[in-house]
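[job 0417] fold request received: 3-hydroxyacyl-CoA dehydrogenase
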Amino acid sequence: MAPSTYYSIDSQSGVALLYLSNPPVNALHPSLLSSFAENMALLQADASVKAIIITGDGPSAFSAGFDIPQFVKTQSGSGAKLPDVNAMLTALVENGPKPTVAAIKGSALGGGCEVAMATNARVATAKSVLGLPELQLGIIPGFGGTQRLPRLVGIQKAMEMMLTSKPLKAVEAKNRGLVDVVVANDDDLLPAAKQLALAMANGTTPRTCALSKTDKIGPPMAARAMVQLGRMQVAKNTPPGMKHPSMCLDAILVGATEGPEAGIKKEAEVFAEVVQHDVSKSLVHVFLSQRLTSKIRGVTDSGLRPRPMKCVAIIGGGLMGSGIATACVLNGIDVVLKEVNQKFLEGGMQRVAANLMSSVKKGRMTKEKYEQCMSRLKGTITYEGFDRADMVIEAALEDIGLKQKIFAELEQVCRKDCILSTNTSTIDINVVGAKTNAINRIIGNHFFSPAHIMKLLEIIKTDSTDKQVILDTIAFGKAIKKVPVVVGNCTGFAVNRVFFPYTMAACLLVDLGVDPYRIDKVIKAFGMPMGPLRLADLVGIEVGVHVGGQFVQNFSDRTYASELMHRMRDGDRLGEKNKKGFYNYDAKRRATPAGRDVEAILAASGAALDAKAANTAAQLRQIKQKVRSFSDKDIVDFIMLPVVNESSRVVAEGIVDKASDLDIASVLSMGFPPYRGGPIKMADLRGAASVRDRLASFAAMFTPVGLGGFFEPCDYLQSCARAGVTLADGRSALGTQMARL
Ligand SMILES: NC(=O)c1ccc[n+]([C@@H]2O[C@H](COP(=O)([O-])OP(=O)(O)OC[C@H]3O[C@@H](n4cnc5c(N)ncnc54)[C@H](O)[C@@H]3O)[C@@H](O)[C@H]2O)c1
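[job 0417] inference complete; emitting structure tokens
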């Protein structure tokens, strides 16, 4: 059924009950809003109606807000036309002839909360939540929320709720003035709403119109001071280039100083502007794409049903194994943890206990839940209990021989239907399973550290992996509250592969004489949680050497083999691990630039590049000159566009099911800033042609010294740029041309 509203009238009492209906969360689709306007007009004009209750259809929501896929249509100019919602809310809900009450069960968020605030009173069940989280999508409230919320809860609290996007639970909402009555049980909701509606209809209880309230706004001078405090908070917490939080405050301020009509007008202007910003397009893209990663063509639409993973056996109780075990027991899955000896086993079990205990200490878990989780964990130094396992996750050392031996043993000790998975970060999944006859049930389960916290689960399928096994692994990922992203088998899989140029480009810049700390600062300002050199310290310089070597070997046409990481390792600068890397670390892991401590290493690595390019020394000198005068934007392009280039290859090769899967994987693993959408979305917002041209200019600059290949725009990027299609749509848009790539 199309999203709409429907109503009934209780002829005895004269109370009409209007339902917002668009299951499961009654999202405010344009057709629902049109139906809402029509039915409100009918009910307000109906002489038999004394009061109107507005409520949500179904058990879970009043309304969770505006229908988000509609934003995408609005942003591309193809959205359905909306009725004038603000005018309708003011005329028919807030100030119509009959009083209105919102009866709230579940969430009243965003547009849903704005509809509720326009009614004359709100009754909510104790478990309900109300809030305006629009800013997380790069927009601002657009149905009067910036005006009504400050008038109901005060400017300070309203700003806090909008800037943090955090909703209030019903009881706090009542204490703050956002809700009038809280009822304990769902069954009490409509009777309480009816009572209040009739009391307003017969005049025994006054009607409140939020937009006309002034008591919580204060005089203009006080409002200005309050908003100024909000601006300071925004300046401190908002990345540069993100304008919508301060524009939201502009709308609040206009309303508070010039009156609600001016405020509503300002809100509409700001909304129309911010909805077209790249920030909003990116955040909406991330929001919607995250839900799609677990839909894989040919697998999740194949009619198969996932088998539950009730017991998981884990090999290795080190950093990763213990984190994975924690995630499993936390989500009701039994775990058998295997280690090489009793001492290591105890260490692994203790790490799981410590992971869980840290939640108890922070008050996020009860002691009972902790005990319950620990009771699901069994340790072994043999394969005892592996016959129970529905899935094995191998997290032993990154050693091909060891993994092959383990998998051959697993084939002997596990059931024939048990999924055999590996957490390898670099080894080809086919190679891991080479010594078995079980390749159809072998799959990669690539977690990110810390495994019980990081949201991404990169699932690596091979050409031989059974659909059922892929489906079960996706369901397992969801069961342990991860976001599963299914990728193909290749060097580095998806995430590590697209980010190898991130570190390599930084090493090249350092070898050319750019200050490493400037690089990290610029990339952090771009929005990454840390720059590439700080990240190298965190991951460990030895790991960097190992993984970097794999890329140089497998992608020799487009890698830069710097000596920097090798020289850091040889100089015992291993990163956070030994508190000495590009930064020095104190006992609390606080980083300070190592500066002079690494000067000689940086110089030697730069000299190695000089020596390799000895035949083209003059050209290298010219390049160094140019690079040293790079602006911050040049540095960002130099480091991030090779990442985009490799991302394009991953999309072209079909390593990911959808281009957006790669964006989500990048956001959830590397902390790629969601407000930039991920490498593919960022490139598409800029335009494939612009990305191609910039990469081509770097390639031209470096070709004389033999390093142009690192930047050479890949065929797919070039094809998309030529055809004027996005990288996200290129595979389908280029059709047969793609087959030749
Ligand atoms: N550390 C990371 O950030 C990270 C991220 C993703 C994937 N990985 C991968 O996960 C795997 C484990 O990495 P880690 O960082 O946890 O290593 P780790 O050294 O902390 O732990 C490995 C554990 O495996 C145990 N082990 C070795 N052989 C075993 C066997 N036959 N049976 C049972 N236990 C055995 C070791 O005793 C050790 O405790 C590696 O393949 C690694 O590449 C690591």
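[job 0417] notes: The CA atoms of residues 627 and 634 lie 9 Å apart. The first strand starts at residue 4 and ends at 10.
[job 0417] exit 0
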